[in-house]
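Researcher: Please predict.
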Amino acid sequence: MSQRIKVIIADDHPVILFGATQVLNKFPEVDVASQARQSTELIQLL
């Protein structure tokens, strides 16, 4: 049984968010839990 890694991607540019999500989704052990475009949004998600 492998352990999954949950991540939240944070950046203010939508293209970076999209690209990072696409790359990380290629790894089966990584779970992109959410995305944040502002620091306040990131704090709420955490």
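Model: The chain has a mean pLDDT of 95.
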